[in-house]
Structures are given as C-alpha cells and as structure tokens.
C-alpha cells in the first residue's frame, strides 16, 4: 500500500470514529425547547402516546466504551493503513504458524512412511491409497483425476518421462519441481531457410514418431529436407536421434505421447513460439513424507506392483 493510500485509510478510520462519538453526544444531549420526555403531543387512538425519553446513562456509556475498545483494537492490531500494530500480528504470520502446527501433526500421522523408498511405498496398498488421495487433492487439477494429463501437462500413466522415470527422479520432480523451456526457433529458422524451413523441420520431427524413420524420410521429401535444420539446431537438447535428454527435460521426440499437439501445425507452433512448462515444487506445500507418498503413487501408475509385492506388509 502506498503512503498516500495509507494516510487515506487512516483519515477515513479516524473520521468514522469521530463521527460515532459526535453522533452519540449530539443525540444524547437535550437542547432548549425540547419537549419533556413524557410530553411530545404525539397521541394516536386516544391512549397511544409517543415519548422522547433519552437512553439510560449506562447504555450511552457502554457505546463510549465500545468506541474506546475499537480504538485500542486498531492500535493493537494493524488497522491504520501501513501501521503494523503494536502486537506485530499479521494474517500471514497467523497462517504460517497454523500451517506449521498442521504440518507437524500430518508428519506425525505419516511418520511410519517417512524415508521409505518409493518402490517399497508403491508396493504397499495402503501407502498407494494415501498417495492417490494426496494426488487427487494436489495434482489432479493439472494432470487430471486419471493422471492422463492434458495439453501442456504430461501423461503420468505411460512410460514417457521427460525428466526421467526412476523412483528418485520422480520424487525429485515432486519435491523440487521442474521447469522446461523450449526456446522459440522460428526467427532463426526463417533467417536460415525462410518460412518453409519451419515446416520442413516440423515434418522431420513428426517423422521421428513413425515406425521406420529412414523409410519415412525416403518417401517424405519435406521431412528429409528438415533433417539438416534439426541437426544444426535441435540435437544439442534432443540428441541426434531425437531421444531427448532427461537432465534438461528435453522430451523424447520419438515417443508417441507428447504434452503438446503432435500434428504438423502443432509442431510448427512449438518451433515458432517455443514452450515453457513449470512443475511447481511441493516440498514446502506437502512436506517430505507426503511428497514421497504422492511420488510413489505416480510411479506406480507406470510401474504397477506385482501380486506378491502388493501383499507386502508396511
């Protein structure tokens, strides 16, 4: 809040408090010429008389005490613009303290799962069920309730992992998050070979998903022309065969499943505009143990435990 708005709020609060004090004082005093409390001359139906009796003193004083309490409240808690209050209380601090208490309680509840390997948790039906609940509350908004993803959000039920699919890599993704950046290459490609270079590169990337890439390149001249652009600009991240690099989060371009549209126009859009995907870190939100349980559930979706592992005791 700027200083100008802060002073505006302070002035508004003081004006309202002063207005309440003046209203009480003005309405409680008797002025010369006022009728007596029992004589207002307002009579209806012969025996219904309106009186002008003032409020009892104790009632008026109670209103004054309420105003004093309100002023003290505004001084103790933040209520005067940017003034932090004499107590130093903030809603953010209250939230953080309450969250810390709740997190400690949850950590104690899930203590039996703390530090256990992801594959062991994935083989424990109870741990998987808890992880599924955590996933539904925290992750389903992006990845869907069935974890099959959406455009821009990966499918977690297949065997395609941009950042690696080992238990430790999945846990790291949940704990610390990921940030994948595909830079826009449209300007570079257009400068090298014109607008058709973008289409040729997109055709080559699409050809990488076919069963026989060499055969596709022999029959698709557009894709064959795009290979040279791919080799000069894209291999640094995606590799010479397009298999990607988990250390960089560069996706495997030969995989059938992708986060973004795999049509020629969709690939062109990716090349021209680039992509920026962010997986937020959940270490601070869920804590170590709950993140571990969620990661175990996610890992189990593409690595279902066998029957013997499913009956393992916690």
UniProtKB/TrEMBL annotation:
Question: Which keywords belong to this entry?
Answer: Cell inner membrane, Cell membrane, Electron transport, Heme, Hydrogen ion transport, Ion transport, Iron, Membrane, Metal-binding, Oxidoreductase, Repeat, Respiratory chain, Transmembrane, Transmembrane helix, Transport
Every copy of the Cytochrome c domain together lies at: 126-209, 221-302
A biological process (GO) of this protein is:
proton transmembrane transport
Which GO terms label this protein's molecular function in UniProt? electron transfer activity; heme binding; metal ion binding; oxidoreductase activity
Transmembrane regions listed in the UniProt entry: 6-26, 58-77
Which cofactors does this protein require? Answer: heme c
Q: Where does heme c 2 bind?
A: 182, 234, 237-238
Q: Where in the cell is it found?
A: Cell inner membrane
Q: Which PROSITE patterns match?
A: CYTC
Q: Which cellular components does GO assign to this protein?
A: plasma membrane
Residues engaged in binding heme c 1: 139, 142-143, 279
Q: Which domain of life is it from?
A: Bacteria
Q: Which pathway is this protein assigned to? A: Energy metabolism; oxidative phosphorylation
Q: What is the cofactor note?
A: Binds 2 heme C groups per subunit.
Q: Which Pfam families match?
A: Cytochrome_CBB3 (PF13442), FixP_N (PF14715)
Spell out the subunit comment.
Component of the cbb3-type cytochrome c oxidase.
Per the entry, what this protein does is: C-type cytochrome. Part of the cbb3-type cytochrome c oxidase complex.
Family according to the record: Belongs to the CcoP / FixP family.
Protein name in the entry = Cbb3-type cytochrome c oxidase subunit
Say which species the protein is native to: Luteimonas aestuarii
């Amino acid at each position: 809040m700027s200083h100008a708005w802060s002073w505006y709020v302070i002035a508004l609060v003081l004006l309202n408090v002063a207005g309440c004090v003046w209203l009480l004082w003005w309405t409680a005093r008797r002025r010369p010429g006022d009728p007596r409390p029992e004589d207002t001359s307002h009579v209806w139906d012969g025996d219904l008389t309106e009186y002008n009796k003032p409020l009892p003193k104790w009632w008026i004083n109670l209103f004054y005490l309420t105003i004093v309490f309100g002023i003290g409240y505004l001084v103790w808690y933040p209520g005067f613009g940017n003034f932090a209050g004499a107590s130093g209380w903030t809603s953010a601090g209250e939230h953080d303290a309450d969250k810390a208490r709740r997190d400690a309680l949850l950590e104690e509840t899930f203590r039996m799962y703390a530090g256990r390997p992801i594959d062991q948790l994935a083989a424990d039906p109870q741990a998987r069920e808890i992880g599924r609940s955590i996933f539904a509350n925290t992750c389903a908004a992006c990845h869907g309730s069935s974890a099959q993803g959406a455009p821009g959000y990966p499918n977690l039920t297949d065997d395609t992992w941009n950042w690696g699919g080992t238990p430790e890599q999945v846990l790291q993704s949940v704990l610390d998050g990921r940030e994948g950046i595909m830079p826009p290459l449209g300007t570079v490609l257009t400068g090298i070979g014109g607008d058709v270079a973008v289409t040729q590169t997109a055709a080559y990337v699409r050809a990488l998903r076919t069963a026989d890439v060499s055969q596709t390149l022999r029959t698709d001249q557009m894709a064959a022309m795009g290979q040279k652009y791919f080799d000069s600009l894209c291999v640094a991240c995606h590799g010479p065969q397009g298999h990607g690099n988990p250390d960089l989060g560069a996706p495997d371009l030969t995989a059938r499943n992708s986060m973004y549209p795999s049509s020629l126009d969709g690939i062109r859009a990716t090349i021209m505009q680039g992509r920026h995907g962010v997986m937020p870190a959940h270490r601070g939100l869920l804590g170590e143990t709950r993140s571990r349980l969620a990661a175990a559930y996610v890992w189990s979706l593409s690595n279902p435990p066998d029957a013997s592992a499913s009956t393992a005791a916690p």
